[in-house]
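Board notes (copied after class):
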Amino acid sequence: MGYGSQRLSFGPGITRMVKLLIIVNVGVFVWETLAGMAGSYGVIQIFGLTPYLVVRQLYLWQLVSYLFLHGGLGHIFFNMFALWMFGSELERHWGPRAFLKFYFVTGIGAGILSVFADPLGTAPTIGASGAIYGVLMAYGMMFPDRYVYLYFLFPVKVKYFVGVLGIIAFFSSLNAPGSTVAHVAHLGGMVVAFLYLKGWLSLSGVRQSYYRWKLRRMRSKFKVYGSKEPNRRKDDDFWIN
């Protein structure tokens, strides 16, 4: 269905890896809820991301486990809704393995940035929001001119939607200490996703980017005569390893 000359999407069919992630998240949420009802509050302390425990006691598993814990029904609903809406399209383009790798790279990367932001913090961070914001960034980079419906009513281009989310996450992160929302993780997920897609998180990607920069610099020193090359998309726009 179209809006003007652009494509509109009211929701994609769910893909295999996205479905698996949603099932695991919901299952962990049910377990987390039952554990809390039974009076056991150690789940978040052990598996939530607590920077102090990661730095001082090497609770490194928390960089992964925190992605599967959520603070309430609304928290997990909106995260899983965004994962379905935007993640399914990315999985179809990249394939299940590449998408799953991207999901964990952005989620873990967001967690690492949260630890660096407050290495002695004792308040645990939970939720898949870091990875979800990474998914949003990737979708905005790959499909910038597609439309999404804000509040199911107002069509907004994805690039503007993602840009506004990034601005909100950035300014919110300035007051992140003491907040119940992990704004640093949100912003971190977007930053890691951008760097990952550009290939700047691997040695081969950095090397390729350097060679491309060096080649452009050499070309700028010489004026090339002859026919112009046809316009084409940059080869580093959507790089993923």
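Comment from the instructor: The first helix runs from residue 16 to 37. The CA atoms of residues 64 and 131 lie 11 Å apart.
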